[in-house]
Amino acid sequence: MADINDADGWTCPVPLRAETHIVLGHGGGGLLGSELVECLFLPAFGTAELAAAPRDSVVLEVGGVRLAFTTDSYVVNPLFFPGGCIGDLAVNGTINDLAMSGATPVALSAGFILEEGLDMAVLDRVARAMGAAAKNAKTRLVTGDTKVVERGHADGLYVNTSGIGLVAAGVHIGPERARPGDRVLVSGAIGEHGVAIMSVRSGIEFGTTIRSDSAPLGGLVAELLAAAPQIHALRDPTRGGLAASLCEIAAASRVGIVLDEAAVPVPEPVAAACGFLGLDPLHVANEGKLVAFVPDAQAEAALAALRAHRYGAGAAIVGTVTDGHPGVVVGRTPLGATRVIDRPLGEQLPRIC
Predict the structure, then answer these.
(1) All domains of the chain in start order, with CATH
(2) How far is 49 from 65, CA to CA, in rounded Å?
(3) pLDDT at 54 over 90
(4) Residue 218 in contact with residue 258, Cβ under 8 Å?
(5) Of 347, 336, 212, 155, residue with least CA distance to 262
(6) pLDDT of res. 10
C-alpha cells in the first residue's frame, strides 16, 4: 500500500483544470475528456468543425450509401464482472455507438493488446464472449489485430473495437438536433453497470448482486425508429452517466432540458449503493441503456415501443426540452426543488469500460 504521506504516489481522478499531464479524469467522459478532444485532438486532426456536436459515431456518405463508423477502446478493471466481461462489453458498446446514429450494424473489427504472461484460458473466455455477443446482435467480427507487450504493461489485456453500419434514407439523428418541445425518454433503470463494477473492484456487498446492464441496442433502436421515425437525438449514457449525455445534447443543440428526477428509474440497490458511497446515480455509467429525444406527438408511441422490447421494458419519460436556459440541464428533485445538473469533471470510477 502506498504511503499516504508520499504525495508523488497519489492518484487523483478529478484533478485541477490546469493539469499539464494526462490524468485518469481525461478518460472519464466528463469535462476533462471533452477539453482534451476539443482543444488538442480536433485541432491536430483538422476536424474542429465536429467539436460543437460530439457523436457516438460519424455518418459518412460513400458512393450514395450512408455509413456510420465508430471506434472504441476497453480497459475495464476487472476483466470479468456480474453481467459480463470486457469481451461482450466491447462488442455491445460498439454496436450501441452505431445504433445511436440510427445505423444497423454490419461488421466489427477487434484489436487486442495482450500482456505477456496472460493466461490463455482468460483470452479464450474473452474471445468466446465476443463471438457470442456478436451473434446475439446479428453482426460479425470480420477483422482484427493482436499485439503483445511486456509483463506489467497492459494489466492483462485491452480491447479495441471498430464498427460500420448502414443508415437508412430519411434517418437523421444527432446531438445537435434536439428541439424545444421534445420529450426525453430513457430505456430503463440507470446506474447498474457502474455499481456492478464498483462492487467487484472494491469488494463491497450491497445485500444483493447488482449486474451490469451491458446489452446490444441495435434491435431496440430499430423498433423505436419504426414507432417514432422523427427521433431527433439518441445517446447511450456510458461514462459520465445520464447527466453527461443530457448536458452534451443540451450544449450541442443550444436548448434547455428539464429533468424530472422522480421519474428517472433508479433501482433500489443502485440508489442504496450510491447513497452509501456518496455518488449521484445520474453520473454513474450504463452500458445497455439509451436516452432518446422525441417530438412530443410521438413520445407515447416511442415509450410503448421501448417497453415492448426486452431491453426497454423499464422505459420512462423523464424530461422535456425547452427554449429557456439554453445549454443548461435543470433537475426537479422529488422534494420539489430545482438544481442545475452539470457534467462531472472527470469520472467517479476510472476504467469502467
Answers:
(1) 183-341 (3.90.650.10)
(2) 23
(3) no
(4) no
(5) 336
(6) 42
